[in-house]
C-alpha cells in the first residue's frame, strides 16, 4: 500500500504504431489501476485508418487519456522522448512517469507496487516491472544487450510480491522514470523530437 498520498495522477506514456485496438485495451487497463493515472498516447505515424480508430477510442474513453500524433514513425525511443518531453514540460506533473508499448498488460496493482518499491529505495531513478519470464537483462561485452536466465540462487518471487533485482538495463515492457534525473540528461536526447506533433485533448 502506498504510504505517501499522491497529489497528481501518475503519467503513463504509451508508444503506439498501427495497433489501435490493443492500445485502447492497454489504456483501459492502466486507467483501472489502483493509483490515479493519466495516459498520454504517442502515435508513431500509424496508417490513417488505424489512427482514426485510435482517435475514436480515446474520445470514447474520455477523461484520463489523450493523444499526441508525431506524423512519422520515429521508432520506440524517439517516440517515447516525445511523451517524456510532454511530461517534463508539465509543471503540474508528478515525480514519476511510466513508459510502455501499446500492448502492455499491467495488473491493477502493478503501478502501485512499483511506486511502493521506489519509496523503499530513495536513490532509485529508473526501474522496470518484471515480465515473469525468469530472465534478467544484461549487457554482454561482445553481444550488447540481451537477457539471460536469472541467478538460480535467487528465490523466485511469489505472484504480486514486490522486490528489487539488479539488472544492467531496464526492459521496455513497463518502466518508470523519476523526473529529476531524466531532466538533467535531457539536452542530449531531444534532437529527435524537434518536429511538430499534433495534440488531441
Which stretches are low in confidence, meaning pLDDT under 50 for 5 or more residues running?
184-197
Q: Specify the number of helices.
A: 5
Q: Helix proportion of residues, in percent?
A: 25-40%
Give the strand tally.
9
Structural class designation: alpha/beta
Elements, N to C (H/E): EHEHEHEHEEEEHE
Strand content: 15-25%
Biggest sheet: strands, sense, closure?
7 strands, mixed
Mean pLDDT: 83
Largest sheet, spatial ordering of strands:
5-8-4-1-2-3-9
Radius of gyration: 17 Å
Outline the structure in words.
- It is built from 5 helices and 9 strands.
- With 201 residues, it is α/β, with parallel strands linked by helices.
- The strands form 2 sheets. It has a 7-stranded mixed sheet with strand order 5-8-4-1-2-3-9, with helices on both faces. Strands 6-7 form a two-stranded antiparallel sheet.
- It starts with 9 loop residues before the first strand and ends with a strand.
Amino acid at each position: 500500500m502506498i504510504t505517501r498520498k499522491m497529489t497528481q495522477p501518475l503519467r503513463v506514456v504509451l508508444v503506439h504504431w498501427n495497433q489501435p485496438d490493443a492500445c485502447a485495451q492497454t489504456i483501459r487497463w492502466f486507467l483501472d489501476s489502483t493509483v490515479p493515472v493519466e495516459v498520454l498516447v504517442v502515435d508513431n505515424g500509424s496508417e490513417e485508418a488505424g489512427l482514426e480508430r485510435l482517435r475514436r477510442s480515446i474520445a470514447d474513453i474520455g477523461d484520463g487519456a489523450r493523444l499526441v500524433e508525431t506524423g512519422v514513425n520515429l521508432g520506440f525511443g524517439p517516440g517515447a522522448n516525445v511523451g517524456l518531453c510532454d511530461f517534463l514540460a508539465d509543471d503540474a506533473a508528478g515525480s514519476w512517469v511510466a513508459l510502455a508499448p501499446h500492448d502492455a498488460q499491467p495488473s491493477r496493482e502493478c503501478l502501485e507496487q512499483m511506486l511502493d518499491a521506489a519509496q523503499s529505495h530513495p536513490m532509485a531513478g529508473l526501474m522496470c516491472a518484471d515480465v515473469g519470464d525468469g530472465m534478467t537483462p544484461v549487457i554482454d561485452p561482445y553481444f550488447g544487450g540481451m537477457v539471460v536466465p536469472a541467478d538460480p540462487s535467487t528465490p523466485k518471487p511469489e505472484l504480486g510480491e514486490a522486490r528489487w533485482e539488479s539488472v544492467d538495463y531496464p526492459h521496455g515492457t513497463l518502466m518508470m522514470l523519476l523526473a529529476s534525473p531524466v531532466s538533467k540528461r535531457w539536452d542530449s536526447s531531444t534532437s529527435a523530437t524537434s518536429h511538430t506533433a499534433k495534440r488531441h485533448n
